[in-house]
């Protein structure tokens, strides 16, 4: 992250944020130079501890400490523990007061070796503690910067969009026009855990309240939307033999992939003849209709007849029948992945749907997708046909009931019922579904309907 | 000693009756066996009281029959009364007093304007235990980790709200009818109507629209209990803004409920609601959640009962205004800072439960007729529950027990106070030691306590100049707890190392509410640590947590085994 932020690509704000970075760097440098002032870190008292609360300081500033003496009582998620000093010296400066919370590994106090260094340490603690709030502020700034990059890259309307990212957050009818975030207790807890900024989450609960599933959905998508634009399309040389930790986004993806393992899923495949669809596409392509929109439309129309395939299982006890059919379509972007959503794809006509799709893709490329544009899908389409893939298997995104993997439509030799051999364009689709709510027969019936619609696509254009 | 022993077990004794179809047998049996058996061991008393109590009982039954026949001629010349004892209010306190009065041979009547059983049985401890039993089982079934550790496989646990609500209601009905039957069978007259004191030793009662009856009694006990306290600015509609009275009916399980107050009631309901799938926001006026508990226990309880659950909280705030949901708007709660009174926040939730404590139910009691003025609604009493009038004098023959006097608002405390009053009116002076009365919060796991908290003990120690010792044991070391895979918990003993006196015991862990009685009985009986630590506990049982606790206390060698402990303290 620091690399990204330090590039000259950030035009005006780079000078603003330099202090915080050099602040943290400078700290470690000065540590090497004068090792006599040591930092006391927030210890990890349990494997699950991410932050600790200072219960009480057993020593005050200026007190002499001997090695092994208890300095501070820290409250973790499990217990209160005394923290001992590893070194001898003087408690020069307390950086996190009693009752304060600090992440594991961050400095909570400074230890001076001699009494003379106390003043110096104090001065240091002030400079570094003043940099701390800046670190906290980093997140919202990133979002702004992400938006600010846009004019440079795309010369699109800039400032209003940037505003929309922040303001178009949880608009709760009674939350004073979105000034206040209304989120349920569990949603708040999750947001903290998954490091999701609630300001960027759109609530789907009663009266637009943010509930747990909104945060979960945002946890996957937010990093994609919020991370600053890549400075340049470098093909970063992968250093062999190294271990590279996940970025936040990769972490979120990983979490979701692992989470998907808890869903009992199965797959049903189908081969669909696309000659009619191809012909239709050829006919209306000039009007801006895209294949993705056609497929989304066909899928949505099939879902109308099979609402169970559009359902999902949220709590392990019930079917959640979604009121609208929102087709999420996976799009590879900057090495990442995002799923712009065609909302109400069953109701919107194919031309509008195509325009909408183009708009979404543009927005996704410009990283301007708003949360509700990528996390409200009820059924997902993943199409690798353009790469010549003829069949594959998709992983079910958590919170949805089914995902359809679409392969390439290819000319195939087929035997017809009357005993002849002919050539037809065929594509294979493969649906992965949550078997708690969607059963084999449901998928079979759905696919049959879908095949019928694709093979006789007149309904797609109304 | 006799009466102290009595009061501590009075409640279990009467509970036993509830479950028995044969009250006469039931009452003589458990009382004799439990009380006297224990006393025999502890103090070497013989079976003298045993047989005498039996004798009193039988004669009392004959007696009551006789008097109830004569009660028809309702002339009340001085010194001749309709009853020996009239109790206004048939809650747990009134019931406990009535049963003991009958045993002591008193002709007893109990006046009840609503349903027998009072708050505890109908709108309090009893139905809430039914809901908590459900929440405990749900929690267990939902805890995949816990089930897996035991090698169990359970497919999705679910519940039927109406079924749960019915369970609570049926339990209340059953206990109520048990309570009524136990009093009827013993010959307690149950007079229906609202009781009002019209003068010394004189009570009127009657239903609305019917002529009042006037009855006289040698002694009168007020046991009218309490109602949920609703601070001003809060509009209770019974649907979205509710009190415990409504919540116990479980007419809905909201997605998000704010609970105002984090004491026993709020805590127990948070346990129920979160187990049934709600998310909870606590609103607490003090700076800490669970303000009434020993701080260490409260902290641990917060780690287990609050932090990992779908609960958040606002502390140090008052809810100044709560508006029920209407016209598509949610429940709106306005919060101000408890200290600065500045507006702090506004919450929008689906429901709000007001659990800010309970207010005495003493309106219309006719206290003015005996020159008594309530204090914030509470009837002023001395340490013997005798009512005090405006001039600071005792009102003869008038007592007040339970929530109405506000000393210790617990059902079993009311019952113990009632028994104490009956002891006094039957000629034995008696002061109840409130520090021996245990209290419990039936969360999962449970919290229980008796006596002083550590800060209270330290304050007292400083004032009186003694040392305080603290011993702790963990449930993690207990075999039975580990077998249940419920090792989370702590027991804490606060004591005097110089004398071995137990000042307080606090338990947080599996079945803590049942475990506390070894400690509360020890306090009530004045048993010292150096003696009780030799008592044997079955292995492996949870009770060994307390065994360990007593054994880990460091009582000074000089402390004698049989000296007097400090006198019982009246609150």
From TrEMBL, chain A:
Keywords attached to this entry: Acyltransferase, Lipoyl, Transferase, Transit peptide
Domain Lipoyl-binding, first and last residues per copy: 37-112
GO CC annotations on file: chloroplast envelope; chloroplast thylakoid; pyruvate dehydrogenase complex
Needed co-factor(s): (R)-lipoate
Database matches in Pfam families: 2-oxoacid_dh (PF00198), Biotin_lipoyl (PF00364), E3_binding (PF02817)
Class of this enzyme: transferase
Residue ranges annotated for the Peripheral subunit-binding (PSBD) domain, each copy included: 182-219
GO molecular function terms attached to this record: dihydrolipoyllysine-residue acetyltransferase activity
Keyword Acetylation part of the UniProt annotation: no
PROSITE patterns: BIOTINYL_LIPOYL, LIPOYL, PSBD
GO BP terms: pyruvate decarboxylation to acetyl-CoA
UniProt-listed Enzyme Commission number(s): 2.3.1.-
Entries under CDD domains matching the protein: lipoyl_domain
PANTHER family tied to this protein: DIHYDROLIPOAMIDE ACETYL/SUCCINYL-TRANSFERASE-RELATED, DIHYDROLIPOYLLYSINE-RESIDUE ACETYLTRANSFERASE COMPONENT 5 OF PYRUVATE DEHYDROGENASE COMPLEX, CHLOROPLASTIC
Family stated for the protein in its record: Belongs to the 2-oxoacid dehydrogenase family.
Protein name (record): Dihydrolipoamide acetyltransferase component of pyruvate dehydrogenase complex
Taxonomy of the source species: Eukaryota, Viridiplantae, Streptophyta, Embryophyta, Tracheophyta
From TrEMBL, chain B:
Keywords of this entry: Chloroplast, Disulfide bond, FAD, Flavoprotein, NAD, Nucleotide-binding, Oxidoreductase, Plastid, Redox-active center, Transit peptide
Main location: plastid
GO molecular function per UniProt: dihydrolipoyl dehydrogenase (NADH) activity; flavin adenine dinucleotide binding
Cofactor mode of binding and number, as noted: Binds 1 FAD per subunit.
Catalytic residues identified in the record: 539 (proton acceptor)
FAD/NAD(P)-binding domain span: 83-418
Location in the cell: Plastid, Chloroplast stroma
BP term (GO), one: 2-oxoglutarate metabolic process
Any one cellular-component term (Gene Ontology): mitochondrion
E.C. numbers: 1.8.1.4
Cofactor requirement: FAD
Function noted in UniProt: Lipoamide dehydrogenase is a component of the plastidial pyruvate dehydrogenase complex (PDC).
Family indicated by similarity: Belongs to the class-I pyridine nucleotide-disulfide oxidoreductase family.
Protein name from the UniProt record: dihydrolipoyl dehydrogenase
Record lineage: Eukaryota, Viridiplantae, Streptophyta, Embryophyta, Tracheophyta
Gene designation: lpdA
